[in-house]
Amino acid sequence: MKILVVGSGGREHALVWKLAQSPKAEKIYCAPGNGGIAEYAECVDIGAMEFEKLAAFAKEKEIDLTVIGMDDPLCGGIVDVFEREGLRVFGPRKNAAILEGSKAFSKDLMKKYGIPTADYQVFTDPTEAEAYLETAKYPIVLKADGLALGKGVLICKTRQEAKDGVKTLMLDKQFGSAGDEIVVEEFLTGREVSVLSFVDGKTIRIMTSAQDHKRAKDGDQGLNTGGMGTFSPSPFYTPEVDAFCREHIYQKTVDAMRAEGREFKGIIFFGLMLTADGPRVLEYNARFGDPETQVVLPRMKNDLVDVFEACIDGTLDQVELEFADNAAVCVVLASDGYPEKYEKGFPISGLEKFAGKTDYFVFHAGSKRTADGRILTNGGRVLGVTATGRDLKEARRKAYEATEWISFENKYMRHDIGKAIDEA
């Protein structure tokens, strides 16, 4: 079958890499793709938000399955466009992708259906938000309601920081219209865990756990980013935590969306905080996480095409997910200065050292391939270096070993990805 993947980051590279392993995948296209994806798929110069062009391309090439990797097109309604054109597509429709597209919606949904989360207030008026902050308990969390590339969350330790945050989000519009409405949320403490799941509208199948590192600098300092590294599984995601989440969070979310007339088919990403009072939902995403995908898919044994088709057809109850009894760690190599200002266009060397290896992987996020075959840096997060091992400590050692194989000017990374493993 012919497959089209929409997106251009490390997540999409991991998806294309995994799909290429399926005997059903005869030809893979990726729009727009990147320098690494071109190894497995034919990259197509169509932007992820050009829905009509993408649908026309899928028709022209007789694409059998389109996979949407990114949040923007999902929340913008790309699945609706493809379905209207009679095309087979994996991902939630626009009215279901709101689970990620509006934090106010998701918080209200959790409150209505008794899904455990942090206490919160929603504001559309900055003056009202500032008045609320006068009596709030600190630290406190401010979230832009809409999509902000994973960066629209501000943790404010003082009242002044929170007031400055309201100005940043609602008045200065640092994240554009995403800050028209904000969620002011109770600050939770504990271990953060990411859990991805497949959903077919009724049935949910849980993948292995992972843990992301959002902050730009070592010791969880610096600005929020799209993610600087991750590991899987999380040693803090115990069988007891899993049992609680299955009963009180996972299926209840699927059922709640169905009850609201927003049947969800695709990926639900549960961002959890394991508090002293039990697991709480921090956020939902309506697609694979990045860089969580880079450690989850290398451990997955199933044919990804089969699982995607089961989600579309409503037959996920017939699928059992299998994951290897191992571990994986991903370290992101970024351009120094990310997530703010950084330079790009530098040659990348050392990629050939990953060829033929089954326990070391390099997933491209911000790279491009030149006409003469060179790979250049082309973004803030450039590469995700992933390694698998018998356990997390071995996988971590190997991942950091592999980061030394790669060189480019302005290369930057955190040196403490997975350090929490030592505390487990």
Q: Can you give a write-up of this model?
A:
With 424 residues, the chain is α+β, with helices and mostly antiparallel strands. The protein is built from twelve helices and 22 strands. Strands 10, 11, 14, 15, 16, 17, 18, 21 and 22 form a nine-stranded antiparallel sheet that branches. A five-stranded parallel sheet has the order 3-2-1-4-5, with helices on both faces. α7 packs antiparallel against α8. The chain is globular. The relative contact order is 0.14. The mean pLDDT is 96.
Layout of strands and helices, then pairs:
Elements: E1 2-7, H1 10-19, E2 27-32, E3 42-43, H2 51-60, E4 65-68, H3 71-76, H4 78-84, E5 89-90, H5 94-101, H6 103-113, E6 120-123, H7 126-133, E7 140-144, E8 153-156, H8 159-171, E9 182-186, E10 191-200, E11 204-212, E12 215-217, E13 221-224, E14 229-232, H9 239-259, E15 265-275, E16 278-285, H10 293-296, H11 304-313, E17 327-335, E18 360-364, E19 367-369, E20 375-377, E21 381-389, H12 392-403, E22 411-412
Parallel strand pairs: 1-2, 1-4, 2-3, 4-5
Antiparallel strand pairs: 6-9, 7-8, 7-9, 10-11, 10-15, 11-14, 12-13, 14-17, 15-16, 17-21, 17-22, 18-21, 19-20
